[in-house]
């Protein structure tokens, strides 16, 4: 197994062997790349013409983060059609692990053999075998996460790869000789309409990639996740609990109902109260995005009075925005001067158009209408949503894919600007739930919406699967509490949040004393488990259900840290208790819930036997 380089420049040959249109690897450019130097943390390749590719390798715990920089040292301009962030060859593996993702169904584990994927070599070794997958658009977690793990089932060895791409990306698995090559990075010209011109002396840095080796899927995933370096606000260092009112008012917040929620939550241990969509624009708020004027019929006098009231009850106020979008009923929807275009026409997706985040006018408009509103009203938390994808790209660069990459970088700069202008603000990354659960966005946020799965029974399955790609301390999981909920249902919802960050919502003002007693017990248990959730290692994800829509069987997740463990058990339809919940020799020291029947749940804190 070794790292190598993959690059294709315009005009150079494709590989042949029936691969053209399926892959741009093994091109004439790649054949001309010669390794000129190598150290433990850097490799340099050059072409005879003077194109240089430098790959830097940074150790982060048990993972290596790769950073590749291409420089045009020739006297002429070049056009890059493919540049890999990571390329590893001669991997002895027979199983492939991927994480599929759709709206409210994020992170579904998919395991296949080399035979399933038809990657066995041909009878005489001729003809490339290729499995290429990825995502095209501005929602990088759609269909798949930018992740793959390759397993050698005979030796128990795994190699895991995670791409740090915020726009279109691809991963390729290639086989000719019975071993696999794994290549990944920005979606290339074939897959994502990406081409990049470099003038003489210009350089381009590819998105980073992380690689880890281990002895189980959970082991390599833990190493990849711990290599992430998110910019978590100092205000959010204590795993504070969120209340988001969306599933209480369903987009109809006003001063009175938010005040009522505040009164119900005062003194209950909730740190953030987030006002979600519906505070702005006209009554059909979903068509008013881009018009960040307060709806005075709901919040007379603006947002400062309610933010002040939330703070008076001991909580930090939060507010929802979708800053990159313009709704059909916004006054700017039919003024295309500052909007993204594709082939000269405004890029329209359903009822949305999109700001050009590189446009100086747009930057100033959003600074005034988003950042200034947050700062002047005293909000300490912002939920940044993004509710559709622009597809393959837009006008504004030498290719649609390059323009997309640049616009996404401009969106990331806006995240940074919020943090710079409102020091200490807590940023939540949301994209219809989990469509942007990638490091380029996760590193700019304290938390993320794990999913838009508000109330389905699949919540604990999604939450557990996301342990493989994001830090649980950043994974905000809904517990929507309803007045008709039984004790089992309350336990089921609250215990799911132990797989990440607790986010409450629902009929909080109408719960009985008995229901509140369960909620407060759950809050107390969450606090006692917080250090394990934040700093631990997930050692077990054992789920017997293949379905998200109608889960059957049960799921057991264990996470351990500093001599303690957290075991989280959910029972689904037609379930049975597992033979062993705690590891052999472990001693339970705390527990919450009852797992006595289908759709019930229980959690334990235990002393490990090591």
The overall average pLDDT, rounded, is 97
- Helical residue percent band: 10-25%
Structural class: alpha+beta
In CATH terms, the superfamily of the largest domain is alpha-galactosidase from lactobacil brevis
CATH class of the largest domain: Mainly Beta
Overall spatial form = globular
Question: In angstroms, what is the radius of gyration?
Answer: 25 Å
CATH topology of the largest domain: the name is Beta-galactosidase, Chain A, domain 5
Strand % is 25-35%
What's the number of helices? Answer: 12
**What low-confidence regions span 5 or more consecutive residues with pLDDT below 50?**
none
Query: What is the CATH architecture assignment of the largest domain?
Result: Distorted Sandwich
For the biggest sheet, the summary is: 11 strands, antiparallel
What's the domain count?
2
Distance between the termini: 33 Å
């Amino acid at each position: 197994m070794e790292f190598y380089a993959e690059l294709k420049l315009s005009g150079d040959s494709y590989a042949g062997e029936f691969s053209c249109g399926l892959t741009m690897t093994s091109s004439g450019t790649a054949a001309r790349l010669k390794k000129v130097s190598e150290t433990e943390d850097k490799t340099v390749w050059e072409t005879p013409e003077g194109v240089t590719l430098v790959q830097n390798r940074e150790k982060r715990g048990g993972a290596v983060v790769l950073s590749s920089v291409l420089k045009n040292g020739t006297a002429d301009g070049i056009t890059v059609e493919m540049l890999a962030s990571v390329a590893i060859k001669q991997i002895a593996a027979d199983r492939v692990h991927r994480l599929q993702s759709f709206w409210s169904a994020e992170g579904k584990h998919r395991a296949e053999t080399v035979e399933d994927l038809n990657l066995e070599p041909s009878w005489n070794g001729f003809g490339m075998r290729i499995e290429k997958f990825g995502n095209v658009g501005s929602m990088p977690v759609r269909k798949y996460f930018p992740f793959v793990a390759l397993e050698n089932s005979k030796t128990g060895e795994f190699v895991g790869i995670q791409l740090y791409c915020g726009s279109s990306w691809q991963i390729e698995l290639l086989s000719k000789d019975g071993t696999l090559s794994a290549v990944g990075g920005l979606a290339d010209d074939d897959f994502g309409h990406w081409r990049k011109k470099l003038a003489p002396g210009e350089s381009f840095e590819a998105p980073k990639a992380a690689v880890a080796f281990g002895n189980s899927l959970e082991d390599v995933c833990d190493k990849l996740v711990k290599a992430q370096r998110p910019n978590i606000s100092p205000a959010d260092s204590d795993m504070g609990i969120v209340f988001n009112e969306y599933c209480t008012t369903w987009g109809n917040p006003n001063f009175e109902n938010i005040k009522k929620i505040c009164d119900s939550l005062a003194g209950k241990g909730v740190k953030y109260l987030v006002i979600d969509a519906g505070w702005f624009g006209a009554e059909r708020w979903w068509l008013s995005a881009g018009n960040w004027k307060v709806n005075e019929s709901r919040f007379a006098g603006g947002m400062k009075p309610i933010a002040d009231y939330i703070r008076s009850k001991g909580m930090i106020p939060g507010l929802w925005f979708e800053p990159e979008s313009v709704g059909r009923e916004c006054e700017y929807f039919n003024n295309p001067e500052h909007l993204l275009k594709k082939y000269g026409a405004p890029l329209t997706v359903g009822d949305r158009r999109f700001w050009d985040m590189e446009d100086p006018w747009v930057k100033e408009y959003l600074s005034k209408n988003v950042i200034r509103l947050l700062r002047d009203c005293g909000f300490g938390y912002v939920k940044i949503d993004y509710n559709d994808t622009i597809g393959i790209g837009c006008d504004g660069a030498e290719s649609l894919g390059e323009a997309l990459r640049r616009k996404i970088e401009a969106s990331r700069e806006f995240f940074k600007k919020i943090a710079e202008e409102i020091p200490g603000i807590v940023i939540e990354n949301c994209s219809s739930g989990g469509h942007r659960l990638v490091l380029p966005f996760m590193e700019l946020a304290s938390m993320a919406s794990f999913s838009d799965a508000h109330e389905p029974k699949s919540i604990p399955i999604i939450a557990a699967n996301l342990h493989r790609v994001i830090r649980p301390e950043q994974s905000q999981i809904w517990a929507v509490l309803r007045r008709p909920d039984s004790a089992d249902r309350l336990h089921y919802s609250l215990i799911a949040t132990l797989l990440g960050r607790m986010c409450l919502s629902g009929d909080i003002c109408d719960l009985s004393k008995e229901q509140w007693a369960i909620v407060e017990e759950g809050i107390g248990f969450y606090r006692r488990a917080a250090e394990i959730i934040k700093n631990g290692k997930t050692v077990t994800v054992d789920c017997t259900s293949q379905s998200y829509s109608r889960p059957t069987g049960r799921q057991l997740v264990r996470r351990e840290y500093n001599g303690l463990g957290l075991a989280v058990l959910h029972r689904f339809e037609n379930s049975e208790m597992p033979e062993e919940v705690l590891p052999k020799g472990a001693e339970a020291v705390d527990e919450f819930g009852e797992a006595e029947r289908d759709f019930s749940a229980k959690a334990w804190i235990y002393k490990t036997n090591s």
